[in-house]
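User: What would this chain look like folded?
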Amino acid sequence: MKQTFITSYKLKNTYRVNSIIYSIKQLPILKKYLSDSLYSNEGLKILANVISVFIEIIKTFLFKFLYIAIVIFGLSQVYDNPQALNFLHIFVFFTFIGAILNTFMFNPSKDKYYALVLMRMDAKSYTLTNYCYSLIQTFLGFLPFCIIFGLLAKLPLLITFSLPFFVIFSKVIFSAYTLIDFKKTKIAKNENLPSKIFWVIILILIVLALGLPYLKVTINLEIYLILFILLGFLAIKSLQIIKTFPFYKQMYKQLLNPQNVYVMSNANNVETIKQNVNKQIEFDASISSSKKGYAFFHELFIKRHRKILGKTIKKQMIYISIISIIGIIVTLTIPKTHKSINNIMMSSLPYFVFIMYLINRGQSITQAMFINCDHAMLSYKFYREPRVVLGIFKQRLKTLIGLNILPAFIIGITLVLLLYLSGGTNNILNYFVLFFSTICLSIFFSVHYLVMYYLLQPYNINTEIKSSTYKIVQFMTYFICYYMIELKLPTLYFGACAVIFCLLYSLISLIIIYRLAPKTFKIRL
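Assistant: Here's the prediction, encoded as structure tokens.
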């Protein structure tokens, strides 16, 4: 097993190093001067290995730090209960959510495909060694920050030390449950595509994690210790199930299929994507449009692909509506929450920048546009003429804004109602700014993603992202939006700035697209 792990780790690291070198080659200025011989350059390989180690450290520690510091510790300060109990309560329920959504074992990643399908490594040996490594990595990543922030929340030292074990126990138990389920159903679960029942469970866990503390109901130390001991006992049994499970090969044969891992040959990959897409495209010959020119072309596309474009938005609207109703009910029934909610509405609008970033479907919709239209149309020269690019860009922008503005509208109305029900404000402009700034943030991200798509078109024919510049801009967008969580600014001032910025960004984007997109809007090699 030791040799299996060493081989698999070298394979994963080689893939990562080559990806880093490829990303360096794709940088706008450097790509003109760098050739394919870079892959054999020892100096660059050393640099890429250093970056790879740095990525592994970030994966182990940085995200755990942000999770514990912002999500767990940050939310634990919102409620009036003792912070230690809030911290413990939120940690427990969010750990259960993490056990469902992040298992490692059921993630159909490319390194698994290379190792188990292409290199035909022993599935059981590969899984057990790499799963143990992921558990150790998770434990070491959580340990220092659970202790530091747990002590800051005034939890006993012994409890803070037990929290990483609680995470491991939960993950092991859920993994064992999924393996047992595979034995019964012969259906491999993909953690990236949770079933509807799991989404319902996750929603319930979120409500319990964030709703119960408002009701002054939290998990105390005694309940936690009982739960910890119970999970510890179940985890020991679960490890035995994981160790003796005989069907890893069959499970991964099903899990690592082309629909889950797009690493097949170009022809097979495109064919697989087309098969998936064709199931959702409407081929009704009666579908038509009364419009002309670019609007005609675009409207036909929208009508035939409305299932793809609107499905996720509809789900978002349902989930947001449920959360909104819960928030309004809590505000109406628990007067003690009014002060906290009112403070959030009046000073934490920057926090909603990150929320609007998360719910915006700009990236997924632009990918659908590429798969279903642009990867074919970009082979024609006229499709990249300035007037054509700008004409279709404006039509797509209208659609993208129209789709994303629907959940934003629900959020905006909810924020206004929460502000009013929690005590209101003396300045009536706050109501208007709160609503319109939410709408403008949605418009901004719609514009931003479409501008990124046209200026940095990142996809190759297999819909893989091959632009390192796109990834950098994407990361910077995420980082800036995440940083906004920490800002505390009056709603009126921040909202007014958001509205003005959105308008200016939208106008400037039209000029930039007209001048630059004809050169940049092309299929990546």
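Residues 2-255 form one domain. If you want, I can go into more detail on any region.
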